[in-house]
């Protein structure tokens, strides 16, 4: 009997000295059982991991974060004109796992709105500090209203961009006064949310690069160059201030390329001095909001959360 058991038979594997034999089917079945029963733990960044973990986002700043230019707006705070399709809210539908836990951005906000009540709302930093749980990410667009950029655009449309023909005053404000103001305020945001990623989002270029693409009769080639230069200087100052404060920066300068204001297919609302669309002027529309959201999403995807 011993010889018959230890001898090799078709479909049977022997184990010398073990005193038993195992059929290959049993081996396969046992391995499948053990594999299913024992959990396998992957690393945080392992591509086999589940989808993005839920992350919370606090949104600070001005109309370029509130979604001005793309109605309808929230009815609970109509003066801040927060769009239901603002780019921060679009992030959640882009596979980023982001949900907005605080939407404090408000149309017309300057850096002062971070520390003082604005349009009947508490200071934005106070709202940030009051969150029960610190957000994973804080984004902010700020500085355009401090620089009076909107006022300059309306001046261009009504008469001329710089009524005295000289844009040095605006450029000096942007390059000499604004850097310190922005850096100090970015540092204040970081202090209010010390365990969050702080991301400064730049402004997109909203005027065409060359006169051939300009179909607006109210914007001369000289004025277009002046506005383009001011837009770029503002963005450079914001980038540098973010670096000085030790926070992240996302560039959106080229997201509207070919679709700037005054082009045949703009993703920016046209300038209007009167009526209900006045406040929408020179702000990204739906396509523009989507383009900004995609730029921010790419930045978030570059780093491990």
From TrEMBL:
User: Under which name does UniProt file this protein?
Assistant: Secreted hydrolase
The record's annotation in Gene3D superfamilies points to: SGNH hydrolase (3.40.50.1110)
Q: Which UniProt keywords apply?
A: Disulfide bond, Hydrolase, Membrane, Transmembrane, Transmembrane helix
* Chain segments annotated as transmembrane: 21-44
At the top level, the lineage of the source is Bacteria
In this chain the SGNH hydrolase-type esterase domain maps to 59-291
Molecular function per GO: triacylglycerol lipase activity
Q: Which cysteines are joined by disulfide bonds?
A: 80-106, 156-161, 216-262
Q: Which InterPro entries match?
A: SEST-like (IPR037460), SGNH_hydro (IPR013830), SGNH_hydro_sf (IPR036514)
The alphabetized list of GO BP terms reads: triglyceride catabolic process
The catalytic site is made up of 63 (nucleophile), 283
């Amino acid at each position: 009997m011993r010889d018959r058991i230890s001898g090799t038979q078709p479909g049977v594997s022997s184990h010398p000295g073990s005193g038993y034999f195992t059929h290959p089917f049993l081996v396969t079945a046992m391995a499948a059982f053990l594999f299913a029963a024992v959990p396998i733990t992957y690393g945080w960044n392992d591509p086999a991991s589940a989808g993005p973990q839920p992350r919370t986002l606090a949104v600070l700043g001005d109309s370029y974060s509130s979604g001005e230019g793309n109605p309808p707006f929230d009815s609970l705070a109509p003066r801040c004109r927060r769009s239901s399709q603002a780019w921060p809210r679009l992030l959640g539908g882009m596979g980023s796992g982001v949900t907005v836990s605080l939407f404090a951005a408000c149309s017309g906000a300057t850096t002062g709105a971070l520390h003082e009540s604005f349009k009947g709302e508490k200071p934005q930093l106070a709202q940030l500090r009051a969150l029960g749980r610190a957000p994973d990410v804080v984004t902010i667009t700020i500085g355009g209203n401090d620089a009076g950029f909107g006022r300059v655009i309306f001046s261009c449309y009504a008469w001329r961009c710089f009524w005295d023909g000289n844009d040095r005053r605006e450029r000096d404000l942007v390059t000499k006064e604004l850097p310190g103001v922005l850096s100090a305020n970015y540092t204040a945001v970081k202090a209010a949310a010390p365990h969050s990623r702080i991301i400064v989002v730049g402004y997109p270029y909203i005027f065409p690069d060359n006169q051939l693409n300009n179909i607006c009769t109210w914007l001369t080639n000289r004025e277009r160059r002046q506005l383009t230069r001011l837009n770029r200087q503002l963005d450079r100052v914001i980038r540098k201030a973010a670096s000085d404060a030790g926070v992240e920066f996302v560039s959106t300068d080229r997201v509207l390329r070919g679709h700037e204001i005054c082009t045949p297919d703009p993703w920016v609302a046209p300038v209007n001095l009167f009526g209900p669309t006045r406040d929408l002027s020179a702000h990204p529309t739906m396509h523009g909001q989507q383009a900004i959201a995609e730029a921010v999403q790419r930045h978030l995807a570059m780093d491990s959360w």
